[in-house]
Target: MBL associated serine protease 1
Amino acid sequence: MDLMRTLLPAILCYLCISLGGAQTVLLNNMYGIVHSPNFPEPYPKEREIQWNISVPDGYQIRLYFMHFDIEPSYLCEYDYVKVYSETEELAVFCGRESTDTELVPADEVLLSPGNVLSVAFRSDFSNEERYSGFEAHYSAVDIDECRDKNDEDLACDHFCHNHIGGYYCSCRYGYQLHSDNRTCKVECSDSVFTEHSGQFTSADFPKPYPKSSDCLYRIELEKGFLVNLEFDDSFDIEDHPEVMCPYDHIKVQAGDRELGPFCGDRSPGRIQTESNIVNILFHSDNSGENLGWKITYTATSSECPVPIVPPNGHLEPLQSQYFFKEHITVTCDPGYTLQKDGEKFEHFQIQCQTDGAWSSSAPICEKKESRRSRSSVASVPTDPIMH
Model:
């Protein structure tokens, strides 16, 4: 009911102000009529009137003419009707029909860019042919902000919902609406990677990443492993031609070192962090449509020397390189048994440690005696896992 009372006022309110011979009429209703003086009788000479129409925010003003009969002149020098919104001139009309130098509104409907519109009428010192003037109707129409928003600072990131007098924004599942009520940010600070290799990207990659977000990606490996990062060539983070990464950026924290910030379209490439724990921090501001980044990480570790194979013995697995936490099992040919520090074993296992040394030296293979030897299996303690 309140809205109907606003849209259907019983009384049209005019506030007239005289400014140096020109008359100004202020109109603030949701609809109304403007017409030339004395309409439908011929308008008087030497008159200037301006109607300033305003409606609430969230509305535009629709204006159309029901009658138009103004003295014609070249480029409307004598009598005219001008329509403008603030400082923008929308149209100048005069005459009875459109020519190369005169324009009449006919069936044209004018729409204000915003919530204000002005109609100015001027007549010169003569009206010999008794032109009857004009009559125009105006009404407030709802702005469809969702359709008309071209300003990045005002548009919704994901979804826009129009309502009478305004609009509101919402976000896709998994996103949160920022306090600016238009930007959609993502929760991206709970990712912890513990595998020895993997990859991760900015949210929505290779589509534009979310605005107004602060993301933390953490790689946490056992002590003895070192993390290597490889940034994909498809790297696109908003930058600035003169200032280093003032808007969006990515940083790498590895131990006591901080690398970056990185931005622009040049990939940082390969980074050897020399740490087993690495934090990647990504920040985006509230603007931009950049595509983001992709990181592949791998782990390297301490390398142990290849052990010497004992005579009549075997190493499993036998390979050219051994790294932290890899194991070797030593066995002997049939008729031989492993011996170390006075003990005999059927098989013996050693492990590559964080310092690049084996947990034990390899035993030797001795020929079995005629009597049955007691066999046992040794299990050598390994380094505890440290976080």
Q: What stands out?
A: The CA atoms of residues 182 and 384 lie 50 Å apart. The mean pLDDT is 86.
